[in-house]
Amino acid sequence: MTKIIAIANQKGGVGKTTTAVNLGAALSAAEKRVLLVDIDPQANATSSLGDFQNLLGKSIYDVFAERINLEDVIIKTEMDFLSLLPSDISLAAVDVELVDKVSREFLLKEKLEKSKKEYDYILIDCPPSLQILTVNALVAADSVLIPLQSEYYAIEGLGKLLNTINLIQHDLNPDLIIEGVLITMYDQRLNLSKQVVEEALKYFKDKVYKTYIPRNVKLAESPSFGKPIILYDINSSGARAYMKLAKEIIKNG
Amino acid sequence: MTKIIAIANQKGGVGKTTTAVNLGAALSAAEKRVLLVDIDPQANATSSLGDFQNLLGKSIYDVFAERINLEDVIIKTEMDFLSLLPSDISLAAVDVELVDKVSREFLLKEKLEKSKKEYDYILIDCPPSLQILTVNALVAADSVLIPLQSEYYAIEGLGKLLNTINLIQHDLNPDLIIEGVLITMYDQRLNLSKQVVEEALKYFKDKVYKTYIPRNVKLAESPSFGKPIILYDINSSGARAYMKLAKEIIKNG
Ligand SMILES: Nc1ncnc2c1ncn2[C@@H]1O[C@H](COP(=O)(O)OP(=O)(O)OP(=O)(O)O)[C@@H](O)[C@H]1O
Ligand SMILES: Nc1ncnc2c1ncn2[C@@H]1O[C@H](COP(=O)(O)OP(=O)(O)OP(=O)(O)O)[C@@H](O)[C@H]1O
Ligand SMILES: [Mg+2]
Ligand SMILES: [Mg+2]
């Protein structure tokens, strides 16, 4: 049974892409078949897995524009069980182009329908906003994984994200649940980190993953080599944390 | 002569808000009259300067909706020469509401026209996107300050930002220039930081500010106390860096 997880938080720079790429790679290392869907026009997840600059009109934007089928755009990565549905900058036009399209919120859900059974997990990396692209991800998803940077602004934006999730559950995707809240860039030496975690545990209780992702420079370095952390430095604290998270998610079922 | 500076970069979490708030405070400490305009629906700049939760319908959204004048929404902060034009979450509706309004890109420019001569500097904190709110800031501004986090994805997104700036210069604001590129979260122990700085200097040459903002936890802590860094911890490396940046910007003229 395929599980579709949207990785979303409108606050910028909280570790959405880093989580999508490295959780995806860690799940595929456990021989789960994984599709990573990049619907951020910044296309950071796409560039984190290799040099795909010359996609020549073959990205998720072309799928949305009905120019090509989803299956013909999916590319293999260095990890056997990890495939990528790439994005590119032209996707930024979608916000305006879809404004008056009927049932524009269901586009991604419809496109994934045919191929989804080939995968155990589909992870969707969202842009830092709650506009139409993120709405598409939340409508297509079974659950939402919320990366929460252990810093002040992180808690501030949660109310708005939860409102949006409620709206989507009410109108567009009644089965959507919160998969979990992931503490990212955690530094146990800082009071700030501990305070944010306390707040998150008060708010979300057992929805907070037991695995915290530590601040680890190897996680920031690996995208420049076009590799997920487990191929770049398997012994780093970042790689170990994402492997532990993958086990926790598989166990949660 | 008032100088309007948009602080923009669509990459999330690069230090836009931290720069808008702390550069604003440092300029006001040098007795420059500063207006900080928050046009991010996340309203992080607004909450960084105090507890303004009960704005009761008095934010930039109400100014855009023609319900109230700009002058009646501006609030004083703890710093004598620093005023704030606050944002709130309802601003997120503007993207959709403005879609078919004529000359929707000029809204902020028009609203600032009457009051701008009361200030030496107007700083505009932008959301992590290149949609209508950021376009409004780039049209209203004389120049753009680009915070560049010293990490891998930072360089990737620059091309798209420069394209957007070119489009704005060509069609909507011919006088718009790049004020400067600010290296943020710089850690001199990391190769990654040094590599990104080398790239930035190659690309932007003397447009890169000589002042680098170091990674300093005090900068991440101060918003939770509703204070800019110079009121929270004047001796921190973060406070010293933003005061040095203010001097550099005043000197550049
Ligand atoms: N645990 C970590 N330790 C150190 N650096 C990290 C960690 N997680 C992410 N980073 C770095 O922090 C920056 C922000 O992370 P990332 O780009 O994944 O966030 P995002 O939420 O996807 O951003 P955006 O909102 O722009 O999409 C990147 O430079 C990334 O390499
Ligand atoms: N120099 C610094 N040292 C340490 N932490 C920093 C520094 N600058 C910013 N931060 C922290 O990093 C996080 C991201 O910064 P900030 O929110 O200012 O970025 P932003 O570009 O405004 O994000 P968004 O794209 O969501 O608007 C915040 O938690 C902030 O406190
Ligand atoms: Mg991202
Ligand atoms: Mg911000």
Assembly context of the chains: homodimer
Number of helices of chain A: 12
| Main sheet attributes: strand count, strand direction, barrel closure of chain A | 7 strands, mixed
Largest interface, chains and sizes:
A-B, 37 and 36 residues
- H/E topology pattern of chain A: EHEHHEEHHEHEHHEHHHH
Helix percentage of chain A: 40-55%
Give me the Rg of chain A, rounded.
Answer: 17 Å
User: Structural class of the secondary structure composition of chain A?
Assistant: alpha/beta
Low-confidence stretches of chain A: none
What is the end-to-end distance of chain A?
A: 10 Å
Shape of chain A: globular
Bound molecules: adenosine-5'-triphosphate, magnesium ion
Give the tally of β-strands of chain A: 7
Strand order of the largest sheet of chain A: 3-4-2-5-1-6-7
Mean pLDDT of chain A: 94
Strand content of chain A: 5-15%
Task: Write up what this structure looks like.
The structure is a homodimer of 253-residue chains. By secondary structure, chain A is an alpha/beta fold. In chain A, 40% of the residues lie in helices and 14% in strands. Chain A has helices at residues 16-29, 44-48, 60-64, 94-97, 107-113, 132-140, 152-156, 158-171, 191-204, 217-221, 229-232, 237-252, and strands at 3-7, 34-38, 75-76, 82-85, 121-125, 143-149, 177-184. Chain A has a seven-stranded mixed sheet, with helices on both faces. In chain A, β3 and β4 form a beta hairpin. The first copy, chain A, is globular. At the A-B interface, α7, α9 and α10 of A face α7, α9 and α10 of B. Bound molecules: adenosine-5'-triphosphate (2 copies) and magnesium ion (2 copies). One adenosine-5'-triphosphate sits between chains A (12-18, 40, 44, 127-128, 184-185, 213, 215-216, 219-220, 238) and B (11-13, 128, 151-153). One adenosine-5'-triphosphate (ATP) sits between chains A (12-18, 40, 44, 127-128, 184-185, 213, 215-216, 219-220, 238) and B (11-13, 128, 151-153).
